[in-house]
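USER:
Try writing one entry.

ASSISTANT:
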Amino acid sequence: MRDILDFILVFLVIGAYVYGAYLLGKFLFSRALKQKKVFNIIWIVLFLFVFIIMILFPLYYGFKDTVQFAPIAIEKPSYNIEELEKLRKLREDELRKSSILDKLVKGKIAYEVPDTMNVGKNYKATVIITKAMNYSILFQDIYQGNFQIEEIKVSSVVKVDLIDPTENNFKVTSLNSVEQLVDENMNTVWKWNITPIRGGDNELILRVTVKVLDRLGEAYKDIRVFEKTIKVNVTFIESIKIFIVDYWKYLVPITTVIVIPLVIWGYKKLSNRRKKNAEQKHEQLRKRKKFEEMIMQR
């Protein structure tokens, strides 16, 4: 969708240039060259200079970022032995993970992430985890509110991440360490500040991993025990600001090409009006003077 929009904006810029060139040529060249005034010739050179700058500006800053050539996909030959080896390793990892999960203890997770936001405003997200299976410890010192509650497998060390998969739709700031200790006597809380950047139907991923020792007991390994994709609707109230920030390099030349013909048209209208008013005033003075001369003669 973004590529299509960029493509349309490119053609709008080109169309604006063509239209601006037509108006400039029609108004400036035809009128000024006939009068052969040095002042008008200077204005023509000045407008041509501005017009050339407006053409070079998007070509250098805009189109070079928009027009991209897709790389040629080259299919690599596949080998059955390598595929079998990968499948074997994947199966071993799944069995190992399954045996590790069996050794983990049951716990509870409660999470609250707003599902409706406005662009540019700040929101809070909260996750609570405990090994205890009762709500009194899970919501200790915290109002239950609109939390979603589920059971998960946990260890003594748990890592919780709130992720924007696009890295462009939200600004997510963690308010505490992502990796914390979890036990059965109290709850452990994770909090984030969330600022939506783009409007529309977006997603956030809530991911929980536990840290466990490997088979040899020599190194720790992260095992994913919970993952939730949260749908978030970001309203379009302030998305116009984001659009201007993203497409300023197109809007500047388009606006300039539109403003210059409007200024020329307004100047022409104002000049004609002043000239007409001056002629009318001169004619009135002439008639008044003639009328006074007739009275004096009598």
Notes: The longest helix spans residues 248-297.
